[in-house]
Amino acid sequence: MSVIKMICEHYIFDEEDNLLVEEKETGEKLLGNKELLTYRYIIEDDELDRRFIELEEWLKEEKIVTIEFITQNTMKYFKKILHMEESIADKENRDTVENFQKNIKYQWWHEKYQEPWRNNDLTDKIIEKIVKENGFVRNHSDVEELEFGR
Q1: Residue 142 reports pLDDT greater than 50
Q2: 116 lies in the same domain as 91
Q3: Domain match, 11 and 72 both
Q4: Source organism's superkingdom (predicted)?
Q5: pLDDT per position as a tens digit, 75-95
């Protein structure tokens, strides 16, 4: 999500789309947003869900695994993985992908990917797919892809 859109949705307008008057409060909320400060952009929950669905559909279409359900931690690790971008392929980041796999309950898996919650070949496939698909980011020509501070 663009920083401008995020600021408007979360810090400038309230739930009823009324303009917030307290500029100091708005600035403090913005400056206290750890995700924005750390990564210079935010992945909103609806965008995170959309990207996860793309990964889930790919796993199913390729007959690798079928996901039965996920936990809150699954999405936390998925977001962390997406923020890693290309560095997800670095050896020191592999444990985050493995934690992501461990926080999924699998319904079905392919013979090649037995015990998908701890399968190294599946970890490699997930990393490869996320890097290849650029974290499932949709390319837009509008302001939506602006990043904070870059």
Answers
A1: no
A2: yes
A3: no
A4: Eukaryota
A5: 999 999 999 999 999 999 999
Q: Which parts of 20-148 are beta strand (E)?
A: 65-70, 104-109
pLDDT digits (tens, 9 = 90+) for 14-59: 666 665 545 555 555 556 678 877 887 889 899 999 999 999 999 9
Q: Which residue from 135, 35, 139 is spatially nearest to 88, judged by alpha carbons? A: 135
d(CA 30, CA 4): 11
Do both 82 and 128 map to the same domain?
yes
- Look at the block and give the residue holding tokens 């796999």: 101
Looking at the structure of the chain, the number of domains it has is 2
Identify whether residues 56 and 33 lie together within a single domain.
no
Length of the chain: 150
Write out the residue range of the structural domain in which residue 51 sits: 45-136
Check whether residue 31 and residue 75 sit in a common domain: no
CA distance 14 to 27: 14
- Gap between the Cα atoms of 2 and 17, Å rounded: 18
Residues 113 and 128 in one domain: yes
pLDDT of residue 18: 66
> How much is the pTM?
0.72
Contact 51, 130 (CB under 8 A): no
